[in-house]
Amino acid sequence: MTEPLYELAHLGHAELLTPVYDESLAFFTEVYGLDLVHESGGSAYLRAWGDHDLTTLKLTAADRAGLGHVAWRAVSPQALERRVAALEERGTDGEWIDGDFGHGKAYSFIAPSGQRMELYYETEKYRAPVGKASYLPNQPQSSVSRGVGAARIDHINVLADDVPGTRAFMCDTLGFKLREHLIPPGRPEAGAWLSLMNKAHDLAITREPAPGVTGRLHHLAYAVENREDVLRAADIFCELGVEIEFGPAKHSRTQGFFLYVLEPGGNRIEVFSGGFHIFAPDWEPVTWTTEGQGRSTAWGLDVPASFHSHATPVLP
Amino acid sequence: MTEPLYELAHLGHAELLTPVYDESLAFFTEVYGLDLVHESGGSAYLRAWGDHDLTTLKLTAADRAGLGHVAWRAVSPQALERRVAALEERGTDGEWIDGDFGHGKAYSFIAPSGQRMELYYETEKYRAPVGKASYLPNQPQSSVSRGVGAARIDHINVLADDVPGTRAFMCDTLGFKLREHLIPPGRPEAGAWLSLMNKAHDLAITREPAPGVTGRLHHLAYAVENREDVLRAADIFCELGVEIEFGPAKHSRTQGFFLYVLEPGGNRIEVFSGGFHIFAPDWEPVTWTTEGQGRSTAWGLDVPASFHSHATPVLP
Amino acid sequence: MTEPLYELAHLGHAELLTPVYDESLAFFTEVYGLDLVHESGGSAYLRAWGDHDLTTLKLTAADRAGLGHVAWRAVSPQALERRVAALEERGTDGEWIDGDFGHGKAYSFIAPSGQRMELYYETEKYRAPVGKASYLPNQPQSSVSRGVGAARIDHINVLADDVPGTRAFMCDTLGFKLREHLIPPGRPEAGAWLSLMNKAHDLAITREPAPGVTGRLHHLAYAVENREDVLRAADIFCELGVEIEFGPAKHSRTQGFFLYVLEPGGNRIEVFSGGFHIFAPDWEPVTWTTEGQGRSTAWGLDVPASFHSHATPVLP
Amino acid sequence: MTEPLYELAHLGHAELLTPVYDESLAFFTEVYGLDLVHESGGSAYLRAWGDHDLTTLKLTAADRAGLGHVAWRAVSPQALERRVAALEERGTDGEWIDGDFGHGKAYSFIAPSGQRMELYYETEKYRAPVGKASYLPNQPQSSVSRGVGAARIDHINVLADDVPGTRAFMCDTLGFKLREHLIPPGRPEAGAWLSLMNKAHDLAITREPAPGVTGRLHHLAYAVENREDVLRAADIFCELGVEIEFGPAKHSRTQGFFLYVLEPGGNRIEVFSGGFHIFAPDWEPVTWTTEGQGRSTAWGLDVPASFHSHATPVLP
């Protein structure tokens, strides 16, 4: 049998584009509860209190919303080289870049679904200054209860015109494992949920509803510590005037407890908790044949139409 | 740099010995909430509702309590062969055995700390019969609310006369990663917490208080889904007449939310939830220099003396 | 100022009618988690583990679903007499009945909204037999984790053609306090939430959608201990094949965390937790002028159409 | 039978004395999460976000810690007059005072246990200014997540040399209901838990350990919304350098989930959630005959010695 690859460690960071930089920055700091670590060149670098890396979100002023890039951290410099070799062997047209605030050199390429992705290894860890250090030395800093208090970066959901092609690319070249997918009878694969190690998903790939469109973002998710924190977040969003698009409720796939809002720039942001864990190295992907199997959400809550249609960049 | 090894996937199962087989079996099924899958040769094979493997606990009648063995599942047949080669290269005196109910051939050896361990790859997955299947196809069966409803096997804590020697062995030959350890000034290393992938610990190694004694078990832990479930378990233990030794409270190391009882045979059993996750492939082990740093538990609850002295087998 | 009346203590019990007695009884015992205490004359008498009274639900075989009656317990025999006098002074046409399994003589009358109601004082308390007694002597029995494990009777929601008239009757004659009501501009009062002491509601009166129809039940609710228990209940309903109509989510009025299903007979049953408490004796009723003020549910979840149309008995 | 009295509505407010006013004020605002409403005459007036009254805590600079007074709100002006008459009939030596910031005239007297108490009716309700109003009009203001975010005043525990005499006074003159008491065999009554309406306790009276001492405070408690919030509070206290004296754990009496710390002035403060509710108007007081019955806490956690010895004022 082919051995599973454990060469990428985790979702490292994402860059979100926003046409309303100041409003988006206020949302991520005051409402979502991230800390601003650095600001330069039209970009803000942010982190959640439970992130061990210096920064996990780059927010960049742009003429429209969307995903600037998403970056995956390799488990070692050698693994990084091997994954780049695998990409190039497959004919991927990428290039090395010098890195950015918070991380070293990275290999940048375009996924088959059109999103820019980066692989990197060298990273800067967060060192809490006096006054921010946690009483627990195994925690990067004191928890933050500002706004919803997002705790750590968790996963990303991109859209793809060709779901099976994109997931095969991610699995074959980068070692993602297919955990679950949705194949409605007689229709193309509608979604695939992939992960690197023990999570139910680090990357979700769902079907782009607009023909011929590529590279769009469905949502970016940070985790909170438990389901009560997601319920609390719902109240906080309401208190702060942020409209809830969907949730809190439980997904059937991944079993994650979710809550979705749009940040002022239009990108969809999730507050997430839970999700089952996967320990079996030979996990058999779960094939959901219809939305109705297990309902479209676990408890039967209908998915709002916007959840199937809205993505960033918004189409003209 | 040396690359991290991802060759073992998870704690596969443990065998507990008990001098009061019937009482222990009643505890694990009626109180802890496991399902009995099979019984033969003086052993019961049990599983938690969230375990994807057919069985994760073997309970064996014996003249005294303790750990029969603990088994780790490799990520592939090739990884299994490589880890056995590494063990043998280090001079470990092990042997292949035919397997057991629920899994195939295994390599059996004695860890430096004296416990029997097994490595294996071939396993039998649980297939829920009609009436036990979950409405969620990504869950091995319907959840069980009998007793405390333990959800899945989580970690094990063994005692070792030589903590650093044992952890070095586990890390070097098997790819465990050191996450945290406790080194009181001027005293030997008192504990080490190791994991394989994203958990804060799959294996804890703490110091054997009795000189010259080897091979003892401190505790075996199954996880429940959240902290409320641990609080619920405390009530259920009290309702069912099981004395709580320690907890519910929060550990400073691993940040796990815990509750400990002794099963009728005397083995310490934990109900566990949470624990932080580790995604960094270059995690820097956290060195706790005193018990007092961060308290012996996170919120300052004193550790009962029995927690430092009781282990199985009980010393004469 | 008029003094507030504290003459009724709590919702004592309700009688539900069902055309499918066996299926309804199986639902309430196996799914909802009530205990069957007694069965006679085509009726089952049930209780939740946290109810201090012997029985809080009477389930009666009938040709259609609906509310047999709902009973309120007075704080004293004297208060009972005073409330009956107040009813009679208002011209209410009631009568004394001998009582029933679990309670003594009661005054039975028809509310302006058409539901039969009873007032009583003498009740039989539950005395747990050996094996069911809780380890906590202030709890009527050990908690039950069968099915969703409903913990205690909480509130009832009846429909009324004339909401303000019905609530005025309940307040003036029986001492209910108006806590919140919904008066959409230019439309009749759509709902009123009333309570007796510290709860946000013991009784909800919402508008009957069918003209000229009286006496219908919207839902009966038992409480569970926390919001995690409501989330757990959602999974259990799904595992047991019971379709969820609405929730889990948070109501804006009462702030209760809710989950609704229909029992096999068609009566709507809620699993409820939380709700704010009211301590002020001069609470100023909150007037909600539109559904949209605070959304129809707290976090914006739409109310399903069935929630506004379905009630029991079902109209021909 | 004697009818139960419902003439007092709730614990209105408490005045705490502190020898370190600035530090105590910082604790209550920044750590405990109360809002400062007013400051005058050496006193600060504070409120929790869920309090419907303008202020529930008066913090007063003094030469030593302790309870300035505790105030109970009557259900009506008439009930206030009746309770004062009952006090005077019993020979209580009290006097009318003009009121204070937040409430009108009050009757001030010394309880048999030595604490100053007040009865009052006229109160000022909190009206949230723009920017503090909640999105839920039935909530006095937006929730506060600063520090532990105490939600509303809940109960007080005073010490008494003569527990049964004190509770009889409170029950007979003011209508408190005895819910539970602890009478160790052969020893004086060690504690009594009393409430006014549906709570398990508004007032606890426990035995003064020092002979001849009167008027001391054991603790004042504010509630949070659920047990997860108590667990969160434990982390927050640790992060902010506040030592936890006791908990989080579950009391056997009241079943409250608790966490105790000392504020800088030395007064013991609780973060509380839960507790069972009492609806029966003829509740039979639960007599605990030994601490060991149901353990001294529900799950067996030992009570620290300081919890039995420390009170304010601290004895010389």
Give an account of the 3D structure.
- Chains A, B, C, D: Residues 10-122, 152-274 form the VOC domain.
- Chains A, B, C, D: InterPro entries: Glyas_Bleomycin-R_OHBP_Dase, Glyas_Fos-R_dOase_dom, GlyoxalaseI/FosfomycinResist, VOC_core.
- Chains A, B, C, D: Pfam families: Glyoxalase (PF00903).
- The structure is a homotetramer of 316-residue chains.
- The relative contact order of chain A is 0.16.
- Chain A is α/β, with parallel strands linked by helices and 316 residues long.
- The model of chain A has no long low-confidence stretch (mean pLDDT 96).
- Chain A has helices at residues 21-31, 77-89, 163-174, 227-239, 305-309; strands spanning 8-18, 35-40, 43-47, 57-61, 66-74, 95-97, 106-110, 116-120, 152-160, 177-182, 191-195, 203-207, 217-223, 244-250, 256-262, 268-274, 286-288.
- Chain A has a single domain (8-127, 147-309), classed as 2,3-Dihydroxybiphenyl 1,2-Dioxygenase, domain 1, CATH 3.10.180.10.
- In chain A, strands 14-15-16-13-9-12-11-10-17 form a nine-stranded mixed β-sheet, covered by helices on one side. The first copy, chain A, has an eight-stranded mixed β-sheet with strand order 2-3-4-1-5-8-7-6.
- Chains in contact: A-B, A-C, A-D, B-C, B-D, C-D.
- Chains A and B meet through helix 2 of A and helix 2 of B.
